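Tip: read the tokens left to right.
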């Protein structure tokens, strides 16, 4: 259970970080 929970949190953090970086790049382009 704990391993799965940590895995979900890790995936969520990666998605959020990737989304933030993508938005930052799009903002810098404009």
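Filled-in amino acids:
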């Amino acid at each position: 259970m704990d391993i799965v929970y940590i895995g979900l949190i890790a995936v969520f953090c990666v998605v959020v970080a990737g989304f933030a970086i993508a938005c930052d790049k799009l903002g810098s382009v404009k």
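The mean pLDDT is 92. The radius of gyration is 13 Å.
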